[in-house]
Structure prediction request, 228 residues.
Amino acid sequence: NAGVTQTPKFQVLKTGQSMTLQCAQDMNHNSMYWYRQDPGMGLRLIYYSASEGTTDKGEVPNGYNVSRLNKREFSLRLESAAPSQTSVYFCASSEQGAYPDTQYFGPGTRLTVL
Amino acid sequence: AQSVAQPEDQVNVAEGNPLTVKCTYSVSGNPYLFWYVQYPNRGLQFLLKYITGDNLVKGSYGFEAEFNKSQTSFHLKKPSALVSDSALYFCAVSPKNYGQNFVFGPGTRLSVLP
Prediction:
């Protein structure tokens, strides 16, 4: 039981390049999330997927797109990377219940955009 | 708008002494409150949560937190700190009727000195 896995762990991009961050969970959770973590700002929600087949914008969606490929996988795509997207990206998942539930986080992807 | 404040960027405490990491929140309605811990180069790990009921919540690794509705606070405490408790701590709130989404505080870095 690996929990939430993310690939890659590290990535360096040049401005304008594109890439996709991959996330998978093996806990049979319905909901999945993408956050970015910047110093002094905590975690900010980029996009989330409440259930398979649905995605919604979070607090900071500009410059990103997501795909909920199936119940297990939720990917984050940067179409044209900018230096402002240099950050640590975390994927998380949770069961979707009647009230907000514990989110389980992956180990993160450290992205640098030059 | 929902918000979470962690008024201290850094908390230093000697090993064996009690520790407190502060969290206050602003949310409409009844909140659901969480504490997470992040060790260096790792994802966030769940510590404890308050949903309803007893205002004192006990969690992992000997941590506890007290929900105070009148002061809109949810401070994290531990009676006797360990050096291994040194990490970054995040408070998060999920307002009722806000789906599964959290608002995270900026984080407090705890250093436990031997």
About this structure: The mean pLDDT of chain A is 92. Chain A has no helices and eleven strands. The radius of gyration of chain A is 13 Å. The CA atoms of residues 14 and 114 of chain A lie 5 Å apart.
